[in-house]
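ingest -> fold -> write
write: protein_1
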Amino acid sequence: MRLAYVCADRGVPILGHKGASVHVREITAALQAIGHEVTVVCRRLGAGNPPPKVHAVAQLEPEEISNPDKVGGILVARGIEAVVERYALETGATRVAAARLGIVHVLEVNAPIVLEAARYRGLGDVDHWLERERQTFAAADAVVVVQRRLESYVLGVAPKVTVKCVSNGVNVERFTRCEPGDLGLPPASVVIGFVGSMKPWHGVDDLVTAFERIAPQHANVHLVLAGDGPQTDAINRRISAAGLTGRVRLLGAIPHDRVPSLLRSFDIAVAPYRPAPDFYFGPMKVVEYLAAGLPIVYPAMGDMPQIIGASGVAYPPGDIAALGSALAGLATDGERRLHLGAAARRRSMRHSWTHAADEITGVIQAAAAAAIARSAA
């Protein structure tokens, strides 16, 4: 099938380092790998990583990707049979173009974008945007979400739309066959690691606080943080003020093809999300931690307990003392780390990008069959 994957979000450069960018590259490459001919249509190409292995990548200017005629022209020129679109505030033109052409339009919802933008980025006129969101969800032939709470959210907005939960995946082979990277630490070091964006809700500041509390009693334990974001400077200052410069490595953003070897150099992985009553993340880092065979310390929120299972140590969300205790316990128990890491690797086999691509293909096929049935009725 000839598919278009559209990302009109100005905040998601296709070749960028953030998790959303990785998701676009991985799911489109997986769709191509299982036999589809995939054209990625994006607003921002960005830089820092190789392009996905797809049939074609087309970058449109902002005024073009918001124009149904321009988007429709690409769909016609490429002979596109179905569209998967990553939901964004800019979503709209692709839906109109697909409807005009009678092409199946599947909306991929990775977050409640309007509420997120209002909370964190100062979006105004929220009622207007929520109504626009309702219309967008309702008009889709089907919706794919990455987490069960998002499924409930979408159905709360548009009760009649078909929704399928397809969790984020991982390229298991890539994370199991690589060699560990060299962090330049002493041979007996125990490495606690985090990979992700330095944003408030990711809880990196809490992780630094927890490490600061346990560091004096565990001289061989080091903390490695990979990623960038709005909290990077503040975290750097915290590390310096706490006298932890020699014990904490802040690597900045790294290309995704270097993440597997970095994770293989960790002994413990952390996903220290802060408490949120509407926790809707489907953390890609978590399934990558699993594939790397790492025990994971995480707050018991969202789908993480089901995804991680017996492969990690959960703590009450927001409890920094419990986070520190979990880290200290694993740091001093190598046998338990090995046991949990082996369980993590086994568990990762359930979360391949190939499986995710197969699930999305099923959604597209079901939506196409439903459209045919409606037209014949």
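write: protein_2
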Amino acid sequence: MKYGFFLLSPQIDHDRSAATVLADTISMAEEAEGLGFDHLWVAEHHFANLSLSPSPLITLSHLAARTQRIRLGTGVLVLPLQDPMRLAEEIAYVDIVSGGRLDVGVGAGSQIHESRGLGSDFSHANDRFVEALDILHMAFESGRVAFDGEHFQVPDTPMSLRPLQRPHPPIYVAGMTSEPRVMCRVAKRGYRAFASLFGPADGSAAEKREAVLQGFDAAGVPRVQCHYAGQRLIYVTDDPEDASEAAAHARDTLQLVHALKGGQARFQGHFAAPPANGALSISLEDVQRDVMIGTPDRIAALIREDRHHLGLEQLSCFMQFGGLDRERVLRSMRRFMQEVVPAV
């Protein structure tokens, strides 16, 4: 099992400046390497306080100079919002300057306000994703691109920059399990499936895993060749009151994400909030039951279940959520690596 630390860079407190949020993010990344995390994952989001992280590759280019060992991952690049040719060059650049430590997570996005702000038609997101993914594949595999799609057209163009990792860095595809054409590409090209494993323990995590495996079946690729990674909200504490407060932060984050995905969020400037009547009905008890919050022994047991039942090979640890302050996040990170991981 490999462990990653997920950097969201939320700005929940109106009084915290963007500079402070980003400084905390960088310090947590450096701490994650020192503690022995295997990966860093950096989000991409736009125009809301959920995340002040508009360009994972810019962040990772900076972190490449601030770290030595840890792998650096985009979690994830929203392909429908990108120029795929420019992205291919930037991916190669960051892979080179990081010494071949880049992991490339990609997704189609899920928040309408982001597409609107960047002038992209959200209704075409999945189609744009597939075309952009194919352009990246062509750029990495052959070193030149000639592509005539519905959304992207590229005349025959050689690539001046190629990734240090050949033919390309590991590629992780987030979500998209309902898109057979995407799952077929994941299976046939050896990409890795990446799932957000939040929410109730009602079988949804197992259903996501099965959808990926069915994509391998449809592509005629043996299921044993599937590489699976997932993300969980995690907070380590022995104190029931501390756990309850962390659960409240997790609930606030889940409700905000749900509202943004559904286009229901209320905005004051770039600060977003769920609708007054609540876009997602979830109690603290639900969160404490279904999210990895609690003692090292409890969290280790839950991770062992994920490894056994889901075949999980990598876990992205979402620990910087809600309004949790820096010191609480760092304390949780340290206990996770010093107490949870050895127990797993």
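write: annotation protein_2
The chain has one domain: 2-238+296-343.
The domain at 2-238+296-343 is CATH 3.20.20.30 (TIM Barrel).
pipeline exit 0
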